[in-house]
Amino acid sequence: MQVLVLLLWTGALLGHGSCQNIASSPEASQDPESTGEPVEEEDPFFKIPVNKLAAAVSNFGYDLYRLRSIESPTSNVLLSPLSVATALSALSLGAEQRTESIIHRALYYDVISNPDIHGTYKELLATVTGPQKNLKSASRIVFERKLRIKSSFVAPMEKSYATRPRILTGNPRIDLQEINNWVQSQMKGKIPRSTKEVPSGISILLLGVAYFKGQWVSKFDSRKTSLQDFYLDEERTVKVPMMSDPKATLRYGFDTDLNCKIAQLPLTGSMSVIFFLPMRATQNLTMIEESLTSEFVHDINRELKTVQAVLSIPKLKLSFEGEVTKTLKEMKLQSLFESPTFSKITGKSIKLTQVEHRAGFEWNEDGEGTAANPDLQPAHQTFPLDYHLNQPFIFVLRDTDTGALLFIGKILDPRGT
Fold first, then answer.
1. CB 348 within 8 A of CB 274
2. 264-278: average pLDDT
3. What pLDDT band is residue 12 in, cutting at 50, 70 and 90?
4. pLDDT at residue 149, rounded to an integer
5. Distance separating alpha carbons of residues 308 and 387, to the nearest angstrom
6. Which residues, in sequence order, are CB contacts of 207 under 8 Å at separation 6+?
7. pLDDT score recorded for residue 199
8. Is residue 18 part of a domain?
9. Does 131 share its domain with 155?
10. 370/281 same-domain check
11. Quick one: how far is CA 233 from the chain centroid?
12. Is residue 395 located within the same domain as residue 299?
C-alpha cells in the first residue's frame, strides 16, 4: 500500500497494513517457529503496563463504537468508552472464573499478561483524569434493593476504581434523585439531569458518565469564526459556526487505502484529537471505522508529519444519554444478562440488567496561547495545504501519555447528536 504524507514525496509512509500486528490486538502476529503463542510486540510504548492496558481497553472502545455506528447509520455517534469499560472492569472483581473470563475477553485482557490488572487500571484512571486533563469520567455499579454485598468485593473496587456500589431503595423517585445527584456531583454539573425513570426489575445497573471540554494548545481567533457551509452530502448543506486559522500548524497524512485525509491537533494536558476526513462527502465511513484499533491509531500518531495548513473546524457541543445494553450484548457479553456467576459479590443469583451511558463533549476557540509550538517545525511544502472539516468526519480524542481512547465521535451534522 502506498500512503504519501502531504500528498507529495517526503520519504515517509503511513503503514496502514502493519498497524494491527501487535499482541494487544485480537489478531496478534505469530511466529511460525513458535508453538502458536502471540509474539510480544516490539514497540517499546506497549511494553509499559499502563500503556498496554490502555490499548486493550481502547480496543474494547473501538468495538463498542463500531457497533453503535452500525445501529445509527444516519445520525451522529458520541461515546466515551472508557467510562463503560471501567464499570465492566470493576464488575469483574465480583465474578467467578467463567464470568470473569467473558468480561476480560471483551476488554482484551486475555491478550495481555498483567498479574495486577486492577492496580494498573487505578494508575490509568489517575493519569487520564488528572487535573490538567479537562476530562471528567466516572463509573458506578447499582444493585437491586435489599441485596447484601460482600465487603471482600467492595474494598478492592473502592481501592482500584475509587467508587462504591449503590443499592436501590425500591422507591423510584428517591433512586432517580440519588443517581442524578451522583452524576451531577461527578460531572460538576456539566451533564444535564436525566428525565428518565429508574427502570423496574433492575438486578445490576452499570452507569458510565464522562464530560470533556477541549483546550487547544494554540487557540483560535474568535473574530475569524463565521457561519459556513457544512456538506451533509453532495447536495445538502447546513450553516454551522466554523473556526478558522489560515496558518495552522498541525500533523497530517493521507491514507490511500481509506481515501481520507488525517490530521492531528494537540490539546492541553497531553491530549490530542485525530480527525479522519474522507475525500468525498458521500463516502462511506465504514472502512475507516473498521481500521480503528489502538495500534493503528498509535502508528498514525508516530507517522503523521508536521505541516502548515489553512484550517477550519466546526464548533462542537454534543451530548449522548442512553443505553448501550443492546450493543454490549452483541459484543459476546450476552451471558452476563442471562446466567452469570457473581458469587464474589453476593450469595444471591444476580445478573446484569442494563448499562447506561451519559457523555458531554465540546470544543470552541479556547486554548492556551496563540504562538505555535516551537518544537513543531512544518515540513517543506511545494503547494499550500487546506484542511476543512466541512463534511462528515470521525474524530478520536486520545491521551498522549498512555494512548488511551477517551472519546470517539462520528459527526454527520455538527449541529447536534
1. no
2. 97
3. very low
4. 97
5. 10
6. 87, 139, 140, 141, 142, 179, 183, 355, 356, 357, 358
7. 84
8. no
9. yes
10. yes
11. 26
12. yes
User: What integer pLDDT is reported at residue 24 of this predicted model?
Assistant: 35
387: its cell numbers: 484542511
Contact 50, 114 (CB under 8 A): no
Residue 417's pLDDT band (boundaries 50, 70, 90)?
Answer: low
Total Cβ atoms within 10 A of residue 47: 11
Total domain count for the chain? 2
Beta strands in 256-363 (DSSP E): 260-267, 271-278, 305-314, 316-323, 352-363
Is 28 inside any structural domain?
A: no
Compute the distance between CA of residue 393 and CA of residue 320 in angstroms, rounded to an integer: 18
- Asked whether 158 and 94 are in contact (CB, 8 A), the reply is no
Which pLDDT tens digit goes with each residue over 130-180? 999 999 999 999 999 999 999 999 999 999 999 999 999 999 999 999 999
Give domain status of residue 16, yes or no. Answer: no
CATH number at residue 208: 3.30.497.10
**pLDDT for position 200:** 87
CA angle, 246 then 248 then 253, to 5° = 115
For residue 329, count CB atoms less than 10 angstroms from its CB and return exposed for 0-12, middle for 13-18, buried for 19 or more. middle
Residue-number span of the structural domain to which 352 is assigned: 48-214+318-362
Spatial CA neighbour of 394 closest among 135, 85, 78, 83: 78
The answer as to whether 160 is a domain residue is yes
Q: Give the CATH number of the domain where residue 306 resides.
A: 2.30.39.10
Q: 314 vs 3, 236, 399, CA distance in Å? A: 27, 17, 22
List the one residue out of 208, 176, 237 whose CA is nearest residue 88: 208
Which segments within 315-415 are labelled E, that is strand? 316-323, 352-363, 367-369, 386-388, 393-399, 405-411
pLDDT digits (tens, 9 = 90+) for 310-331: 999 999 999 999 999 999 999 9
- Does 229 lie in the same domain as 127? no
pLDDT given for residue 365 in this prediction: 97
Q: Is the pLDDT of residue 233 over 90?
A: yes
Q: Are residues 189 and 150 in the same domain?
A: yes
Residues 163 and 61 in one domain: yes
How many residues belong to the chain?
417
- DSSP calls for 79-96: E-HHHHHHHHHHHGGG--
Amino acid at 206: L
Q: Could you give the C-alpha distances from 301 to 102, 262, 264, 274, in angstroms and in order?
A: 31, 10, 8, 8
